[in-house]
Amino acid sequence: MTGHGLTWRNLARRTRRVTNFGWWLHGLGGPLVLVSLLAACGALWWRRLDPAAVALWMWPSVAIIVVGCGIWSWCRQRRHFITEQAAMVVLEVGYHLHNALTTASADRGPWPVPPPYPPPVRKWHWPNTLVPPFVAAALMVAGLLIPVPAPAVATMAEEPPAWKTMEEDLRQMVDKKVVDPKSAEETRKAIEQLRAGGKDEWYKHATLEATDRLQKKHQDSMRAMERELRRAGENAAPLGANAPALGPAQKARHEEQLQRALDGLRTAGLEPNAALKQQLEKLDPEQLGQLNRMQLDEMLDGLRQAAEALREQRQAEKKPGEGEEGEDGEGNGEGDGEGDPEEPRNGRGGPARGPGEGGNPLGQQGEELKAGGPKALQTRDFYQARPGDLLELKNSEHDVDPVSPGQQSGGGTESRGGGGAAWQDSLHPREQEALKKIFE
Amino acid sequence: MSTQSIPTDQELAAASTALNHLTDELNRLLFGQEELVEMVVTGLLAGGHLLLEGLPGLGKTELVKGLSRAIGMPSKRVQFTPDLLPGDITGNPVLQERDGHRVFVFQPGPLFASLVLADEINRASPKTQSALLEAMQEGQVTVLGETHTLPRPFHVLATQNPIELEGTYPLPEAQHDRFLFKLEVGRGGAGTLEKIVLHRELGAVPEVRQVLTTAEWLGHITLTRRLYLPPVVANYIARIVDATHPGVAKASEGVRFGASPRAALSLAAASKARALLHGRPNASFEDVRFLAPAVLRHRILLDYQARVEGRTTATVIRALLEEIPADEQNLPRTLQPATRP
Hints:
Structural class of chain A: mainly alpha
Radius of gyration of chain A: 43 Å
Number of strands of chain B: 12
Number of helices of chain B: 13
Mean pLDDT of chain A: 75
Strand content of chain B: 15-25%
Mean pLDDT of chain B: 86
Low-confidence stretches of chain B: none
Order of helices and strands of chain A: HHHHEHHHHHHHHHEEEEHH
Helix content of chain B: 40-55%
Oligomer: heterodimer
Radius of gyration of chain B: 22 Å
Largest sheet of chain A: 2 strands, antiparallel
Low-confidence stretches of chain A: 320-345
Strand order of the largest sheet of chain A: 2-3
């Protein structure tokens, strides 16, 4: 082959490479943009779930996408690829050579003299060549870099703590043989039902509302049971030991209180344990006088221990600084009998009793707030945390409106927006948003 | 593909020079008809028969006569009329007395010449046209069961008038297909007329020099067949001819019947002839594009609707050549053709 032949063949190879590469890029552009769009959406979604995994898989994923699209384009566009012979035809048409190259390559004629600086017969269409890869790259970068707020529901992978607390209460009370396991099962089933709603539902407004109600019912039951056990013990003691010394009216009052306590235990929501229930059945007001001192003390000890276990359980359940919630009428009445300034307890006595003390009418006093001590916040939700977040408790006064609303016509009362004011003023902004969605 | 030896550069150069002398001589005879002269020489070099269509007085007969003298080939002219019989062109057996016996002796007709001018061929009856058909295709005539071979080379140059069609017998498609080219002879402009008036006299026979011998002419015809037809050019010819059929290409809309395989062979042969005329060892895309109208225009039949719409075979062929690219012009979006150097 002459030097001219080599020159033309090199030109043909170059033309072939450019043309085939152009076809490959042509096939790559569309799928790359499409896949990049999907990948960007996927990355945004994935980053909401697991940002660490995205950082780990980012570059391998980009490489897989590019290589995959490249292979797909090669397979699809291969039918358009030209051979060196076809490239030679392109050259001879471009240079008006009357098919001299084809003829020469078949050894049927001489190679024509190549021009000193042969201009290319194909040139790149830069906008069509560069725009798709740039768009694809921009989409992928956007998918990886656009800030994504972690959703509240997604970050709260743990169930509401109240469920565990209630379950732990029930378990301990069953273990301490205070509560009947069957009566605890009802609350457990309710908790399981809420848990079965799925992680997405755990922190929805309805679930939290139901949890609150269940917790309140659970606490009420515990409180009622404790109260009735105490009342039973307090009224059983005089009837057993001092029965002969009591007057008929006092004895009747104790018997009535004891009967009320026993009735209250039946409707407390939580049934006493089988052993405790057996002891309670012995608390027949008419038969108490026949018990000897030791039997009575043993029974009263059982009641006291059960009540104490319930009290401790409630104490343990309370958060620091949280006072015990008062109950309607509890400890708010006048005590029976004369007041005893030395011993702050329900008074005893007859009609000439002094003003009694109903215990702590607002519930047990909570711990001191320790206001004024700033404390650094710790959170596992790093997306919402800001450096320097502090929690500080402060003592403040209630903002009481000193101006009386006065009498209003029609018995109406001034109201700040009804029930809406409650959640608008007291709820967290995110809870407000959730409620708005519910009412929309 | 030809298996004969490859033409040498000297052979090609010599043939090209001689053929250029021939075209120059004919161009001196016929003013302003350079393309027609080139097409006629190309067609004859490819061994084909030509159909010339044009108005009277444009030099068709003069061209044939001049060609006959320039190549040194015997020529005959037949004026076709409706009462012309096949025997009038093929020849007739004549009863003659030889050695005391009367025998039929074949008297050759005007077809027995290397160059036959069939003037106004569409005025002859179909029967006579068919007799000419056999002669053109087979190179022989059969009279009373006896076959007579025509001389080599044998070329028919037929003419027909596109007007005054009353009382004519238009050539059937099969007979059209026998002609390699259908050439439209047009008139020149004022400059051409001025040259004619200045250099010609009415009734005078212009002088034409013989530039080739019949043997040389036959040598050139043989050399033409040895030229190379690249496969890509053959593919281009095949694609063009195939695209003339209805439904194959967008440009063939309105075509009722497309060109035959003989059209593809004719185009290939003519391309090689033109290549020799230009001194090249191979046929090319340019040759095919240049010759396609002359080869295809009488082989495509348009439907009624297309003719009513004013479409002609020339417009169809032009559209076909634009639609069917010679090389791979299907480019991706990422590339564009550079400005042709």
